[in-house]
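Annotators were shown the component list below and the corresponding predicted structure, then asked to write short factual statements about the assembly.
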Amino acid sequence: MKNLISFSLLLFVFQISAQNSAPYTNTSLVHLKSISPALEASLHNLDATFLSCREHQSSSDIIVSATALNWLNTNNVVFETIVTDLKQKIDHDNAAMELLRSEKDGEEWYNIYRTYSEVQDKLVEIANSSSIATLIDLGDSYENRAIKGLKFSTGGSNKPAVFFNGCQHAREWVTVMATTYFADQLAQEYTSDNFTATLLDLVDVYIVPIVNPDGYVYTHTTDRYWRKNRQVNANSSCVGTDLNRNWDADWNGGESTSTSECSDVYVGTSPFSATEANVLKNYMESVPNLVGHLDIHSYSALVLGPWGYTNTESPDHDEIVSLGNAMNDAITNTNNYPFIFGVGDANGALYLASGTMPDWSYDELGALGYTFELRPNSSSGGGFELPESQILDACAENYNGAMEMIIWAADVQSGCMDATACNYDANATVDDGTCAELDECGDCGGNGPNPGYDCDGNCVTGEMLTIQLEDSYGDGWNGNTLNINGSSLTIASGSSSTEVLCYDSNLCVSVVCDGGTWPEEVSWTIINSDGVELLSGGAPFSGEFGNCSSEILGCTDPLAINYNELATTDDGSCEYSSALDVQIINLPIGWYIFSTFISPQFPAIDDLVSSINSATIIVKDAEGLAYLPDWDFNGIGDAIDGEAYLIKLSENQNLSTSGTKIIPEDFVINLNEGWSLLAYLRDSPANLVNMLATINQQIVIVKTFDGTAYLPDWDYNGIGDMTPGQGYQIKLNSNVSFSYPQN
Ligand code: 0X9
Ligand code: ZN
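Structure shown to annotators:
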């Protein structure tokens, strides 16, 4: 409740301070499966904002007003609504992040998206904590904010250098987190990881998380989906230049560009007319021996090599493809989140673009210039608002991809250098920590055969699964895969496919389905050889079937004497006692002290009194520990044989206890000096003086629940007989051990 109150309070406070959702009042985010040039033009006329850059020709993520939404409906355009109320979603995300903003220790810093000023603080913190990181100030933005970064260098000259930057596009928040994380990790691993230390001794690394600070601040304060910088345009009320169209590489070349100041891809008045592009250009030109550049964007899950303005292959094509694939594999293998590598329009995965930054670093500086488009791959995966829970995944993917560029620049042969390992690489000059051993099937680094199979791929269990895969749109699974028992299944094209797999029904089989676009079209069913459906689902999915609950065998019948309440499967071992001993105890309303001559079959106090639960207010033991049925609280645990208990009832009750009779002459009762509760363990009444004769010298007083007493010093027995079912208070002048006479 407290959290709810503070959450709504924060929502309220934050709405006053941040208005980045305001432009999205009454807008929705929709997803179009196919879009013709005519439809695109109509949507532009309706002021729709296009977001995604992947599969641009065949699909689009678009922000639409209520009017545009109506228009789509009345014109029978097929679309899917991803976010109904975009303003509400942005407000909600903002408020959720505010709750965590003060938590900044270690990886916590990466749990939410951070502001410009938080990132500046982090850069200072990293520089202060690392012997090889220096804070660099590249220059000021149009609105005079510092464009800062970190340089990692161990000194020396003529080393190759690589340059990484995020956030040319203001709304691509995850790129700020990923580049900062990259710097943070390099600083830490320089001291903790030999491989990273070796690389950083060979290569100078520059990292600039926010190259568009004005735009970034604007996405926090005013407009969550702002893309360009915040430079005023002469003769236009529209603000901003697309920094990634303002570089002098096919500048204004017509591929995904516009000369309209109001466009999101406005090229500016000339190359480097945008203050920030000019600051970056000057700094990068001053870096000696720059061999690689990585411009980090989101979203679409792509690795793009030069050129971006033409599909013509560049002179360094082979090397570009080799490094591009290495980076793409490293990213994809991090969390099995598939990225696609390509040059130009990446085989139609997106569009060509003129005037981009990496094409300039390639054409003008001779550095291999790449673009990353980080997670997600689609708007249904969160678009620019990748869920905060995935920030660290995206950071780890970017880290592994970017590391490949450093490895390439270091020009080392990295690999396993342990000659006894199955993946020993005699040419390796740096050990990268990947050394592995042979598994039982002789596979290097493998995990043995999949359950159900032998090493030759034969199905040794003979148990088969049929898996039916469906795609509702009929165009294949668009990169999604169903991973089950070591096999990765998909539909390459068309609407359905059936596969057969071996498995072992004695084991738990995990099932994961994800990894592609259009997950909402995916469905599948897993059926065993008896035709029983074991599991079905869509994408994304994570689950399991088979023998998954850890099974405990035993007797599951509560009436049996060997009942095991932890057992999940009955193994036929239950044993029943032909005649349970039973004692009925008459309990009066109000307080009473009771005891039993039975060792109960179910000794837990709550089980023992379960039949009179509704009338039971409290049960207490001699130490004052309590069982409170109304609170379902048992502080006593099990009733102990030979002990008496206090009980308070709201009405008279008969308590039935069943189990085995205690043999009184064999049962030793130990009582301490002072007050105790005393049980009576015989099955018939008998005079108290006779019953307690063996400890008579040590008794100060014996009392019943209602105050009747036995006082040996006065030779007074007000109690008379001890009665089965009753308990007594007893005060002793020393510790005693005794047993009752036999029944
Ligand atoms: O349009 C861009 O600047 C980039 N996409 S984004 O969604 N982040 O805006 C893509 C640049 C295109 N690059 C190549 N085609 N190589
Ligand atoms: Zn971008």
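Statements collected:
1. Residues 168-169, 172, 297 surround zinc ion (ligand 2) (CB under 6 Å).
2. The chain has five domains: 20-90, 101-409, 413-447, 463-546, 579-743.
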